[in-house]
Each structure stands twice: as C-alpha cells, then as structure tokens.
Amino acid sequence: MKSLGFTTAVGTALLLLASVADAEHGNAHAARRHKHHRDVHVSRAETGKEVSELRSMNLEKRGGQCQFPSDAGLVAVTPGSSNAGWAMSPDQPCQPGHYCPYACPSGQMMAQWDPDATSYAYPQSMNGGLFCDKDGNIQKPFPDKPYCVSGTGSVGCKNKASGSVAFCQTVLPGNEAMLIPTSIEDAAELTVPGPDYWCGTAAQ
User: What is the spatial distance between Cα 119 and Cα 83, in angstroms, rounded to a whole number?
Assistant: First the structure.
C-alpha cells in the first residue's frame, strides 16, 4: 500500500510539473507570437510612413514651380503673387512642362518662345517665354538669342498728367492678357513690334 501511495504521489508530481512546463511553453510561444505581430505592425507602420513621406515628396515636386530669373534684366510682374514675377495671371504659377512668358524693359519685347510655335494658332500661340522643364529648371528655347529685343522705336509717350500713367502691353505669344505695364512718370518709349516679330503679330 505504501509503495502504491508513493508511486501515485510521484505520478501526480510529474503530471503537475508537465502542466507547468506546458504552460510556460505556451506563454513563451504566445509572447513570441505577440512580439512577431508587434514587429510586423511596427514594420508596416514604418513602411506606411515612408510611403506617405515619398508621396508627399513627389506631390511637392509635381507641385513645384520654376523661379523667375532675377539676373536676366527682365521686369517682374506682381512678384508677390503666385506668378512670382512671370508675365502670367497673378494666380498662375510657372509650372513644370509649361512655357512661362516674361516682361521686358520699356521699348523692348520678349524674344523667346516655343520653336514649334510657327503660326498664330492655339495652343502653340500660348507658348511664349522660357520653358520650365520637369525638374523645375528654366530652359532657353533659343540659347543664342537674347531674352529681349527692341521694338521699332516709332512710338513714345509724354506724360503731362499730374500723376503716373500706365500703358499695358499684351502677352504674345502667351495668353494675350494685358499684363505688362509701362509706368510713365515723364516720358517713355512704348513697345511696337516690327513686321518680323513672332508670326508677324503685334504685342502692344
């Protein structure tokens, strides 16, 4: 009887130890599984953050614009607005993939435009100025030509008013809006294109 009781006690103890070992193994497995899920979650979160930042960078790049050349002797038009100096509507930035027209000093006119714009026809007639490439860099369509050329010099203006007087030049080639002002305090030469100007058109 004692031997049987001792054997029973030993068997019970072994079962208890086995149960504890199984429990610890299960807890360790659960901990590893939890850590794995946590690592996967963190990895996915970091990947999602990287993707979000990459998308933000791409959007920022696509939404960028070409800077107005401040060292080319050009005249900035509403430099504090979205056009940032270009001869474009104040709310229109110079974006990659587009031609951006500019204003020249009084008596001069723009001498850069799309080389393929050989006739006064839409949409080529809109492509006046410098080209803003996909990287946000300015390209000069005719590298060997100046930014501006003189008009015929046939028209001048004498201001006899009590204040400043402004004459506006149309943007052509471009959107043909009257966006290029010539402010006259005393006297100034107005821009009058000759017959050899772009497609035989006028820009005044």
Answer: 26
In sequence order, the β-bridge partners of residue 168 are 181
pTM of the model: 0.67
Q: Is the pLDDT reported for residue 37 higher than 60?
A: no
- Residues 139-159: b if buried by 16+ CB within 10 A, e if exposed: eebeeeeebbbbbeeeeeeee
Residues 94-113 as b or e (16 or more Cβ within 10 Å = b): bebebbbbbbbebbbbbbbb
Burial of residue 85 (number of CB atoms within 10 Å: 0-12, 13-18, 19+): buried
How high does pLDDT run on average in the chain?
A: 78
Residue 109 in 3-state DSSP? strand
DSSP codes joined into one string, 141-175: SSTTS-SEEE-----EEE--SSS-EEEEEE-TTTT
pLDDT tens per residue, range 183-199: 899 998 888 888 889 98
